[in-house]
User: Fold these one by one.
Assistant:
Number 1:
Amino acid sequence: MRLRSIETFSTRDVGFVRVTAEDGSQGWGQVSTYNSDITAQVLHRQVAPWTLMQDTTDLDDLLDRVTEREHKFPGSYLRRAMAGLDTAIWDLRGKLAGKPVAELLGGSAGTLRAYASSMKRDITPKDEAARLKRLRDEQGFDAFKVRAGAEVGRDRDEWPGRTEEIIPTMRRELGDDVDLLIDANSCYSPRRAIEVGRMLQDHGFRHFEEPCPYWELEQTKEVADALEIDVTGGEQDCDLTIWRRMIDMRAVDIVQPDILYLGGICRTLRVVEMARAAGLPVTPHCANWSMVTLFTMHLLRAIPNAGDYLEFSIEGPDYYPWQYGLFVDSPYRIEGGRVRVADAPGWGVEISPEWLAKSRYEASGAV
């Protein structure tokens, strides 16, 4: 199968990709969120020239050739752009086969347990607990993630004492029957991370995410080696050699690739296999209601070392106003703390025509 065109529809926050094959069949994917308009330009300038009218049967090899041709640009933007092509091709394959992507990957449609993922630090522990209790009662969530420290905070808290307060508050208010997770977003030195980790252990938390600056793998390993709680990370990493090193040195107990930061489904499957060989579970990062959460749902229904949950953002229009109105029919419905992967072909979702009409349009190839 060869592609005759690659089209993008983007805003600064999110960007969708449509590929059209020689026979006119089409698939939809997405470049990574955040500065997606820039990423769309990278896709047209640095990915499309090496992939249009090329055989896409071995997509892994095709993406490797993009990497090789653009070897002077090894960083995040190229991977975020490659992800748009990759995910659109998987949708195209699913539609041609009449199967959901999960089934193409060796899995099936069905449900997944989700954890309610809070993005907020500008909220008191009391108010955070109150809104999470409402979600528990209304939507059946039985796992929750909150935030510790300040984002890349150099050991500072969002305000003095917030971390020491939120840890016991979450356990006391939500009870012993829920799983609690926490994300430090690269806040701590190893010494402080270990202090916080011991508090987390004392209150039965299960998951301590990105405790140290994510690029300092030795620091993260020091924390993981000192604690019993699972230390997790990897969402930011897009270089497969760093992933290999992270897993080989056991810097984390659970790996958290972001499908769109990493470069798509194919490259994520390589990380999944590295983790499987090392006996590590995979709980991907997917922190908004663009297509990234949908991609992750299909992946988790297929891989043998899927972690215990799907990350599911709980933020409303005050935090992520751009994530509303993207789809004709949202694929994100929580019932009993679970979300369903549909059995519709491909990704099983339709982008809103109204949203597309307001986006920035660019095209490569013969549209």
Number 2:
Amino acid sequence: MRRAVHRSYRGCWLLFLLLIATDLGLGFPSDTRLVWLPAGAALLLTTVAGRLAARAPRTAEPAREVEPPVAGRWSAANSPADRTPSHGSHRLAQACAIDITAEPGPQDPPHPGFARLWPLVRPARAFPAFGAPLYAVADAVVVRVSDRQRDHLSRTSWPAVLYLLLAEASVRDLAGPDRIIGNHVVLDLGDGTYALYGHLKRGSLRVRAGERVTAGQLIAECGNSGNSTEPHLHFQLMDGPDPDTARGLPFRWRGIGVPANGEVFDAGPRP
């Protein structure tokens, strides 16, 4: 049901854009109500999709404890320790998701700060998280992999953030979940629990669908693909392999718990 609603929502917006383009290019249709009909349907489907995603949320269930997916020092953002849904929506099973960015080491250059106007963007390699190794959080089976999207420039200035919010994010939303999550891996942890790693570096995946992995095994590297402002890991647990239809599940990282927004934590040495 949720998949059908999401596809219909994206189809309505695409039809709306096609009608606008046709109207501008050919002067058809003359009845502007016809142009706005799919837009109204899309807005209605957005409400329906939100209610379906929020129905019977699983955010209050006991958290499943897993190993941390990273090593070294990282900081958290959009954490379920501060609120749920942590990303402001139950969509894409991200109600209990977390974003983490790597902290620079003593010999590393400092983390690039947010710029008001300049530089507009920075290359992904300028950030300490880019290329950082990511590890399996439990013994698992790989059920989904995606490795086709490029690692884009950062969106770490006000003009770049406005571009992301007003243009890029909408286009990615219409293109489907993969364009939002970017390159990713989904692991089946058993007992109806799946772990998703998002925004991975293109060409870094070390696993294939159907492969068995062990806790602590290197599976990919952190990147900046998908709907991302800078290189970071988007991590979540969910109750199905497809984030478009699954619901988010709470988690705890062994020895760490759930770091709060802005909290710097040490995930220990590299396995």
